[in-house]
């Protein structure tokens, strides 16, 4: 047997020995470990440009989600603004926009399951 084949065979035997030494796993536990976590709400991308904030939300889930854009303005006299809640159904898309007079300090989106 050539050296590369010997090395490959040794690695295969070592992998088989390690695989045989693990404890058996129930099918439910194996499925829970293998499945990636499912997001519960729509995925939103928020962009702030000067005094304007825009968010685009896409719901890739089978459940309906309500999204709302909130902004906090830089100036104390500029009122903080919220958009109306928008319903995003399964495989749906929505765009929300809001603005301040002079600048935005912070913009975020809240999610609420639709009833």
Features:
single chain, 115 residues, alpha+beta, four-stranded antiparallel β-sheet, three-stranded antiparallel β-sheet, 23% helix, 39% strand, elongated
Describe this structure in words.
- The chain is built from two helices and seven strands, in the order ααβββββββ.
- With 115 residues, the chain is an alpha+beta fold.
- It has helices spanning 3-20, 27-34; strands at 43-49, 52-58, 65-73, 81-82, 86-88, 93-99, 104-113.
- The strands form two sheets. Strands 3, 4, 5 and 7 form a four-stranded antiparallel sheet that branches. Strands 1-2-6 form a three-stranded antiparallel sheet, with no helix packed on it.
- The chain starts with a helix and ends with a strand.
- Helices cover 23% and strands 39% of the residues.
SSE map:
Elements: H1 3-20, H2 27-34, E1 43-49, E2 52-58, E3 65-73, E4 81-82, E5 86-88, E6 93-99, E7 104-113
Antiparallel strand pairs: 1-2, 2-6, 3-4, 3-5, 3-7
**Span of the ends, CA to CA:** 68 Å
Shape: elongated
Task: Provide the gyration radius in Å.
Answer: 26 Å
Question: Can you summarize the main beta sheet?
Answer: 4 strands, antiparallel
Query: How much of the sequence is in beta strands?
Result: 35-45%
Name the helicity range.
Answer: 10-25%
| Oligomeric state of the chains in view | single chain
What's the pLDDT, averaged over the residues?
A: 83
Q: How many strands in all?
A: 7
In sequence order, what are the helices and strands, one letter per element?
HHEEEEEEE
- Which structural class do you get from the secondary structure elements? alpha+beta
Low-confidence stretches: none
Number of helices: 2
């Amino acid at each position: 047997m050539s050296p590369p084949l010997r090395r490959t065979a040794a690695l295969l035997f070592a992998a088989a020995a390690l695989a045989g030494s693990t404890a058996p796993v129930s099918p439910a536990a194996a499925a829970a470990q293998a499945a990636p976590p499912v997001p519960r709400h729509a995925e939103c991308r928020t962009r702030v440009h000067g005094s304007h904030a825009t968010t685009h939300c896409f719901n890739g889930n089978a459940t309906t989600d309500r999204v709302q854009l909130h902004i906090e303005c830089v100036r104390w006299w500029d009122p903080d603004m919220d958009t109306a809640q928008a319903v995003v159904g399964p495989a749906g898309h929505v765009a929300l926009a809001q603005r301040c007079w002079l600048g935005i300090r912070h913009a975020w989106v809240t999610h609420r399951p639709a009833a």
